[in-house]
Amino acid sequence: MQLITLILLGIFVVGLALIHFVRAFQEINSPKYPPGPTQIPWVGRIHDLPIQLMWLKFKEWADIHAIDGFYRTTMLGANFVIVTDEKVAEDLLVRRARTNSDRPVIQSLFNNKSSMEYLPLMGRNQYWARQRKLTHAYLTEATNAQYHGVLDFEAKRWLARLLARPDDFQASLEDMASKVMCQLVWDDPSLSAACAEGAWGLLRQMSPAGPITNVLTPLWHLPEIGPLNPWKRDERRRHDAQQAWWMERLLGVRQKMARGEMRACWTRQFLERAKTSSMAAGGITTDFEASSMLGMLALVGVFTVAGPLSYFLVSMVTHPRWQAEVQREIDEACQGRLPTLDDAPKLPVLRACIKETMRWKPNVPTGVAHETEADDVYAGYFIPKGTRILPLDWAFLRNPAKYPDPDHFRPERWLEAGWPTFRSPLTRYPTLKGMTSFGWGQRQCLGQSLTEDELLVACGALAWCFHLRPRRDAETGLDLPVPVDKSNSLLIIKPDPFEMAFEPRSEARRREALRLWAEAEALDKKQRADFLERARSKTTTTAAAAAAATNEKKAPGYDTSTSEVSSLLDEKKDAATAYRFAHPAGSEADVAWQLLPPSSIFPLTMQ
Ligand code: HEM
Questions:
Q1: Residue 77 and residue 42 in contact, taking contact as beta carbons nearer than 8 Å
Q2: Residue 596 in contact with residue 572, Cβ under 8 Å?
Q3: Averaged pLDDT for residues 460-465
Q4: Could you tell me the CA-to-CA distances from 22 to 31, 39, 80, 465 in Å, in that order?
């Protein structure tokens, strides 16, 4: 080919690319979309959005670009509307909830939208609807004596652990939150370490700051040949181990129930209802779905509560005046007793300090994205179907009109008339319920009451037992600073590891805390032993227990066996093998989902 022809061809190709680029640039920056930073075709603003502390950049853009409380940006083709004003969140996520309550795909999870495993991450589908209903029922029914007992019991254990190993406080704090959930869901606090490990595994996997494949999404689709795609391999391992562990829990409870040896817990409650019919089990018809729903419920209560608990320590160490106020209030209201939930109306300062901690250091600072299911026009701007709406909690909670002096810890904003957020009576307010941090509309958090109760009991116990102080440097004799702005950058955050001191408020308080734990632990052991003894004396023969288990298996409308699904899959062996080959990333649940008629996975419902 002649040189001149080559040059002309080159000019033509470059010209064509330029025209494409200009058209794409004009389209992506079209004034029909909400205002926002200038978008680069195909890339959006991925290049200048830091993975670390991403919410600060979102807020910075908001201060420059947001008009009337929202703006738009894009990342690798995904369209985002970032909401920075509560009224806009109300309009888009509550009033228009019918079309704005879906969830986006999380690339580094297998089918987060369509699988029935992780309620908070599911698309707005049938599994989400029935699991949300059932989860809601558990969490609202939870306001009974047994649940209060669990919170008090674990708070006492935590105090004793802090007295014995104060430097281990971050691990013991998380373990306490995990033990509460493991007791409520399976009546077994010894499961807490595994539950917490699972919780952090999933949290990391679903966060933009987790695997790189959540940001550079095309990497996820690399073939799994040799070391090419470690992300899928790691996720499959995590996923399968998590599912197997959840299933073991469910089967373990069922076995104990058959022997009459299972005390009250949410899994037992579920299985008892499932024995009646799938309707009574909320429409859930398989062990796979049931074990996932219950497992997820346990898991979600770990990292969510651990964040504000850690930040409460930061608030108290760095604001000794407020710590002294909380201690004075508890001493006066409880007359030296360890506070319980019944004392809540008399403890407004404690509640204000907890709420202000959550405002000052929100632990889901970006909010959780909702995805739109239809094209929409809002305030004259076009919001296409599939847009991710991000309710930026960091911005809501730093709105100076609602929260004057927003960057500072000011619990008085909840306690003194004259502040925009003050509400009376103080026996009821401040309350955590309804905070923007719990999200919006149809996807609003279901754990608000549990969070409020658990934080009150745990933070109340801390202030009752300890002076929370900075750690003193042994060499210099100076206080080691507790950083207030250092955290991880996962979707749900907690402060980076720091050091502090837990100083018992007096020798008498120290002894009383240890006595309370010894008493509670002995009582718990005795109650468990008595229960087992009664159960064993009731069970006349092992055969009767086996019969009970068999009967349960045949209960109408509820498919207890994953093996039934497996044997159906066996019948479709060739298709299953072919599917597994073509979709190496798919789990066994995916294979079942693709190949079996819905009736085999959901015998009674949703057809
Ligand atoms: C400080 C504590 C917590 C915070 C800040 C928090 C925050 C949130 C947020 C922001 C969402 C998403 C809302 C939305 O999409 O608009 C959510 C959903 C959810 N939360 Fe929480 N949460 C907390 C504690 C808990 C606890 C203790 C539980 C249960 C044990 C729980 C259970 C759930 C569930 C099941 C969902 C999913 C709701 C759905 O997608 O329909 N949360 N939470």
A1: yes
A2: yes
A3: 98
A4: 15, 12, 22, 66
Q: What is the pLDDT of residues 159-210, one digit of tens each?
A: 999 999 999 999 999 999 999 999 999 999 999 999 999 999 999 999 999 9
Q: What atom in ligand 1 is closest to the CA of residue 135?
A: 35
CA of 370 to the centre of ligand 1 (A): 13
Nearest CA to ligand 1 atom 27: 301
For the entire predicted model, the pTM comes to 0.89
Whether the bond between 425 and the residue before it is cis, its omega within 30 degrees of 0, is yes
C-alpha–C-alpha distance, residues 304 and 202, integer Å:
13
pLDDT band with cut points at 50, 70 and 90 for residue 354: very high
The pLDDT score that the predictor gives to residue 592 is 52
Q: Which residue has the higher pLDDT, 321 or 580?
A: 321
Ligand 1 pocket, CB under 6 A? 119-120, 132, 135, 297, 300-301, 304-305, 308, 363-364, 367-368, 370, 437-440, 443-447, 450-451
Ligand 1 atom nearest 437 alpha carbon: 5
- Indicate the pLDDT class of residue 567, thresholds 50, 70 and 90: very low
d(CA 547, CA 221): 49
C-alpha dihedral over 174, 176, 178, 181, to 10 degrees? -150
**How many Å lie between the centroid of ligand 1 and the Cα of residue 448?**
7
* Strands of 242-300, DSSP E: none
The letter for the amino acid at 142 is: A
pLDDT digits (tens, 9 = 90+) for 87-138: 999 999 999 999 999 999 999 999 999 989 999 999 999 999 999 999 998 8
CB 432 within 8 Å of CB 358:
yes
Give nearest CA residue, ligand 1 atom 2.
304
CA-CA distances (angstroms) from residue 135 to 118, 185, 293, 295? 12, 11, 8, 11
Distance CA 152, CA 133 (A): 27
Which pairs with CB-CB distance under 8 Å and at least 24 residues apart come from 243-247? 243/117, 243/288, 243/291, 243/292, 243/587, 243/589, 245/194, 245/198, 245/295, 246/291, 246/292, 246/294, 246/295, 247/287, 247/288, 247/291, 247/562
| 8 Å CB contact between 438 and 448 | yes
Residue 390 has pLDDT above 90, yes or no: yes
Q: Assess contact for 454 and 305: CB atoms under 8 A.
A: yes
192-206 helix and 230-258 helix, angle to the nearest 10 degrees: 150
The residue whose CB lies within 8 Å of the most ligand 1 atoms, and thus the one to mutate among 207, 304, 392, 436, is 304
Antiparallel, parallel or unpaired: β 381-383 and 376-378: antiparallel
Strand 370-371 with 381-383, pairing: unpaired
